[in-house]
Design a protein that fits this description.
mainly alpha
């Protein structure tokens, strides 16, 4: 058996695989979406925490929407996975805000 050399492929070097993000979008667009996710997740968390103490239904609804928007952007663009837990916590707290407000309203009318 003789030593065979692989065929000469020329000077072509394949590009490195993307480290994160959807390869359909440019790196600048992915960076902008990652910044938007970070901002939305932070805003949603603040709104949901404020909603625990006052304006529960309104703040909870706004927090839920912002957190859901951040989670959708993470899923679509495949960026900012480190903000997923913050957005999920804000979404859960937003639900707690809404349910708590409804329970308090029912308790007020029943009692």
């Amino acid at each position: 058996m003789s030593d065979q050399q692989p065929p000469n492929t020329g000077s072509f070097v394949p590009p490195p695989p993307p480290t994160s993000g959807n390869p359909m979008y440019s790196q600048s667009e992915l960076a902008a979406k990652a910044a938007a996710v970070a901002s939305d997740a932070k805003t949603a968390l603040i709104l949901s925490i404020v909603g625990l103490f006052c304006f529960g239904f309104i703040m909870g609804f706004l927090a839920y929407r912002k957190a859901n928007e951040a989670l959708e952007t993470i899923a679509i663009y495949d960026v900012a996975h480190d903000k997923h837990s913050i957005a999920m916590a804000a979404k859960i707290l937003g639900i707690i805000d809404i349910v708590g407000w409804i329970a308090a309203l029912l308790a007020r009318f029943i009692l």
